[in-house]
Sequence to fold (130 residues):
Amino acid sequence: MPWRHAFVAVLCVVGLGAPVAAHHSHANYDITTWTTLEGTVKQLVLMAPHSIVYLDVKDAKGAVATWALEATNQRTIYNNGVKKEDVRPGDHIKVRCHLLREGAKGCLLGFVTPMHGDAARGNGKELEWD
Fold:
């Protein structure tokens, strides 16, 4: 009977680990190509497991579309050298990211360069967000 308890315990541990590994897949993004976007930060959501930057981007005709840019968690972003005040809603930024494969307005955020003009808040300094 005790071996059954051990077997069930092992299955539980393996079963709990599988969703965590699957969660971090980037399969829905084209990670072979970098795309550059510029726009104004509409909203910044810093949380675990993934943060999101909502970016208003103007197309060639001047129409604005909101893009959802998926980044890593807040702790990793800060560990990469980004300070909390570096990017705020209303700021102009440039990003490098991997587009969603299905063509929706979203991407896996790799790097952010603040373009707001404030050197104390990292203006012009590209930092990793993934």
Summary: The CA atoms of residues 7 and 13 lie 10 Å apart. The longest strand covers residues 35-45.
